Amino acid sequence: MRTEMLIDGEWTTGSGRTFATRDPATGETIAEIPEAGTTDVDSAVQAASRAFESAEWADMLPAARARLLLRLADLVEEHTEELARLETTDQGQPLGISGGISVPNVVDHLRYYAGWVTKITGITAPVSLPDVDYRTRREPLGVCGLITPWNFPLMILVWKLAPALATGNTVVVKPPEQAPLSTLRLAELVRQAGIPDGVVNVVTGGPEVGQALVRHPKVAKISFTGSTQVGREIAAEAGRALKRVSLELGGKAPSIIAADADLDAAVQGNIMGGLLNSGQVCAAYTRFYVDAERHDEFTEKLAGAAASMKLGPGLNEDTQMGPLVSGEHLAQVERYVDLGKAEGAELRTGGTRPDGELADGYFYRPTVFSGVTDDMTIAREEIFGPVLSVLSYEDPEELAARANDTDYGLAAVIWSRDISTANRLARRIKAGSVYVNMPPMLDAAAPWGGMKSSGLGREMGWEGIEAFTETKSIWTSLA
């Protein structure tokens, strides 16, 4: 596959500098990738700007644009196995996730937004002026910068790319430097699908490349998924430039286990919700509020389930949990575990790297703490790794306040056989998505995003169309 950047339909090494992308299961270099300079970013934005104004793209009939998205979806589906293995090799997630969740989700999003292309409508409204006709139309924003994270590089890219293209925008993509390969392979498929040159451009590199993209005056919108700290910086830059921005940021999802919960179902759902992709999920269930009478039983079962998980390279069929994405991130997870122990939490399982044949990779054992209190660092800060904290509660009336006592508000879950109680509690929790008796799931038709420090705006559903368009009012005198 190509490992260069794609700018205006041409593959380029840009400045000539490179960086390594590594297999997190072994630490070995997979490929050397170009490090874009500011001139490369400018070339990509200028190419996207020209493509946005070109008759080939701007005047393309909606049905024709829909066919391009459907063709791209077909190509992704045809290359599912290849893309899944590439994502697993570069990012670390087990094949069951990359092939069973990530790539199918990409196909679903492309087809879902292909269906919207011919259905984007404005309104007419009865204004209180004589002899005036009033209507609105939704129009694309222009050049959109798409900055994507390393935990689900391909899937989250298409959450942004599909609605951006469906609404007639052009894009410059900055994939994560830790895992850029699936994005570059998708760029090849974009060309194969027949999407015009310059409509989709890809520049690779580290934070400086993202900064150059955010600051470019011809970029009309930034869509970013990543850390809250970086999201704040992007929002500040975008605010000064009066540039559109949407942010999907961090999370610290509470999982509430009521006294009447099906404990075995709650344990399995929380293992899936907390340790999927080695816990490298913004919506991961990470702090568990358990009724005091069931605290010990739940903790024992949760620790047992976590300890039994099979660690290994994502390409191994029997692997249940793969490595963390990088050595740097592994060290950060270890730091949080050390803080948990230092602050008095009880380590029930995990808390170490595996040895033997996994020692060279970025593996970390699933870790469960009990005796955690609300003020501990591991209960308050996003760890983004396989670390689960169990807290207890006595009074159900305190649950909403404790669940909401966080800077984040991306997701939450409630486990209870009493659906009325669960839904009343769901109304009180400040999170973009609240699940009842299930792990965190996503669908192209369901809006996704966070409250508070978990972000601004929504992706997916009709909200994804709104995020990449603006409304124009057209007034016509009938006199």
Would you give an account of this structure?
The protein has 16 helices and 19 strands. The chain has 479 residues and is of the alpha/beta class. It has two domains: 273 residues, Aldehyde Dehydrogenase, Chain A, domain 1, CATH 3.40.605.10; 184 residues, Aldehyde Dehydrogenase, Chain A, domain 2 (3-Layer(aba) Sandwich), CATH 3.40.309.10. The strands form five sheets. Strands 13-14-15-12-11-16-17 form a seven-stranded mixed β-sheet, sandwiched between helices. A six-stranded mixed β-sheet has the order 8-7-6-9-10-18, with helices on both faces. Helix 1 packs across helix 8, helix 4 packs across helix 5 and helix 5 runs parallel beside helix 6. It is globular and about 75 Å long. It starts with a strand and ends with a strand. Belongs to the aldehyde dehydrogenase family. It holds the Pfam family Aldedh. It comes from Halostreptopolyspora alba. Keywords: Oxidoreductase.
